[in-house]
């Protein structure tokens, strides 16, 4: 069966060119970069060059880039690291109610350690109001963390504006750009961010690697303690092949950003328009225009997300849902609830994410098959009266 | 994740629908939890002569409802009441851990429908 | 120039058979294991099988194995996670003065958070006395963490005995087995350990992956918060290719453990004997017999380690030193100081570590070249009077 | 990590040794720190006519000692005193950040040797 992948927001296949630079690193450049001898020096050089590349594409300094094991670790580090390092200044953190769990659960953890966290609401499109951020800042606020673009509904936040407010108020500002990076242009200087998380496997790079941008001067504790790697800020023997692959992936996505985004937006809007026109009682989730180029998220009344996913999977289509049944939890996605959906409707949500390899043919296949799948499930549903 | 039997029951569910003249109707779950099961029983001489279901829920919820209707069809009420969720899971060849709660719903829906029938009978 | 690698304790080249199982994972099995569709299910299956393998070689249950980004993270998690989760019971931790920095610096971090840490001394061979452990346990002791085998001097600790003492006293026991695993047989049940750290790149596996064994029932907080991966204990999209490669590496090293160890011990003892006989004013560091099969560590009077490493590197030999000059710090290795060496002698230390690919020819090459290198440097040294 | 020039100075150090009849001897560093440099100067009419060194230390320490002796050979004391560690680093084509402290030792050793000479001269 031909498989059609519509879950680029979950993870991406590796770019062949990324794998090509990684293989020789794995095979030959295995030295420990902390060593003096030639094996080690070559690994060190590869890492230095990779750091330069990542810094360049973000408009950061190489000294401001720290490699981590992924986006989750970068988020944890930014939040836990600045919270504990600055707790003499205050214990208040501002975030939003639609963050990824890597941020939300980290904030919950900090609440247990005496920190106070404000979870800002969002509007029906999933948009945070920068004025809400401004009004929530108090004497004890030490950190604001707002995601750049939401992984479920794709809404892009006014990061630059929030960064301005943070800076005016002398509060650290972190953004989780795991979804945004590679899809939209990012310039850390222009954005006024102090910290930013990115991840390799979302940009056609390797898994198990990511980075935290830490602006020079930010006071932050280590999250992982040990050896002197990453200029004494992130211990653990460096994963040279993954670092080199990650840098290559950063370079490649940035190179083609404009065209890939344009192509994705066209497919996205085509897909959204068609679904809304051909299936009734469906709503689009997220902002109509301020959304990630590849994100399509709809709620389909009367039926439950996982059963749609399963039906799609049985004909080779891989998509994702905000339904709790996917994960075995009872509550549906906190993001869908935060934009005001009822539990029932949130359970019937579906995300298709478009990537660089998505074709019009694939989209058409989905559009052709989806209505019948939905009708079949609705016919089984006690909530649906045709 | 799902066994072939689960997939088959999900793709080709038996006894989907409603019974306009049901003797007992049971509904459990809630849309908030992402699972609703509705069971319709036609009963003659304490024997289940027809059964239909409607389910809002995941693949496992659909499959467990479907197989449960097969398991109680033609059975006496007493026998049907003995149906447990683990019997349903076994019949499906197993369910992923996090989906086992769906099978509990099927058991409960059947019990609710029988209870409904009995409560009407008494009147 | 032919290169001869004698730094297997720092990191190992990947086994070709490990890479072979990883490549198809990278190329084809990229799905997010948390997803319901087939791409995801296949990744999930690979991870489950890998977990079974790792559990099997350690004699653990699959449910007790948690994948991490490496040995350092595993150490951090074991220590920080149990410390915070059990702080209602006490705030005292027992460790040794010769742990890897991944343990030592983590303990230092906890001291800043109100924990009290006892750093037990070791004898001249780097051996911890289990009775010292017993005597250090007090009412408030919540964790004992003692490394299985030392990375610098190779000394193997009486882990089983310490585990018994920990269990008798109802105190959690963690061991850093990053160096031991793959070199000596390990059975977590037999050892009485509650937690154990291992790492991929030390056993001819991939970098950026490791595992923490957590015995069922151990109360431990998460270190990395977020998604529900690793049964909600370690968040972050799973690094499937690395996990699969790691499991393969675990399998392979365990398969050949006996023969590789015997071969390594033979080369090790031959090397030690030759160096001690042919170069004067040299001492062996670490225990003469209770040491890792591949570890040779000697201190060479009157000269400094990095200059020896550099000289060796210039003829293609990669070794390692406990000298501070390697890292730019001023103090030499804390391990060498802990076994009682003076700063001066510690600075002149050298570690050769032997691995599965080391040949007698390579050892002979080192033994042939080393005396002249040492003589040349001694002739330059103001401390040496021939 | 090291430039070719550093490697060359390390492998083929110039002016290694001692001067039995040195006019000034300077020793800096300590074995505890992992670096000792000892400089021997032969001085005639305030000009350095011969210089030797001995070094216990890393590759950078050896290389900086060696090149520093070349840089002051034949120079007046006044000129030699002006030698700074960054001149030594430049002459070597650079040093890794964590090794720059070694070049400071070379500067200090020369200054100590000149001071030693001057202190004897005064007497
Ligand atoms: C917005 C966002 N933040 C963080 C993460 C976590 O990144 P990683 O999977 O690299 O740990 C993800 C993806 O899972 C994400 O979409
Ligand atoms: C004893 C010991 N513990 C921990 C570590 C850290 O492991 P990793 O490099 O996988 O983070 C190492 C190796 O660097 C080690 O030798």
How is this structure best summarized?
The complex is a heterotetramer, with 2 copies of chain A (386 residues) and 2 copies of chain B (123 residues). Chain A is α/β, with parallel strands linked by helices and 386 residues long.
Key features?
heterotetramer, A: 386 residues, Aspartate Aminotransferase, domain 1, 2 domains, 7-stranded mixed sheet, 3-stranded antiparallel sheet, 14 helices, B: 123 residues, Sufe protein. Chain: A, 5 helices, binds pyridoxal-5'-phosphate
What does this structure look like?
The complex is a heterotetramer, with two copies of chain A (386 residues) and two copies of chain B (123 residues). By secondary structure, chain A is α/β, with parallel strands linked by helices. Chain A has two domains: 4-12 and 257-385, Aspartate Aminotransferase, domain 1, CATH 3.90.1150; 16-255, Aspartate Aminotransferase, domain 2, CATH 3.40.640. Helix content of chain A is 42%, strand content 13%. Chain A is built from 14 helices and twelve strands. In chain A, the strands form three sheets. Chain A has a seven-stranded mixed beta sheet, with helices on both faces. In chain A, strands 9-10-12 form a three-stranded antiparallel beta sheet. Chain A has a two-stranded parallel ribbon with strand order 1-11. In chain A, α7 links the parallel β6 and β7 (195-199). In chain A, α11 (305-314) crosses α14. The mean pLDDT of chain A is 95. By secondary structure, chain B is α+β, with helices and mostly antiparallel strands. Chain B has one domain (4-122): Sufe protein. Chain: A (Alpha-Beta Complex). Helices cover 46% and strands 22% of the residues of chain B. Chain B is built from five helices and three strands. A three-stranded antiparallel beta sheet of chain B has the order 1-2-3. In chain B, α2 crosses α5. In chain B, 49% of the residues are buried. Chains A and C meet through α1, α2, α3, α4 and α9 of A and α1, α2, α3, α4 and α9 of C. The complex binds pyridoxal-5'-phosphate (2 copies).
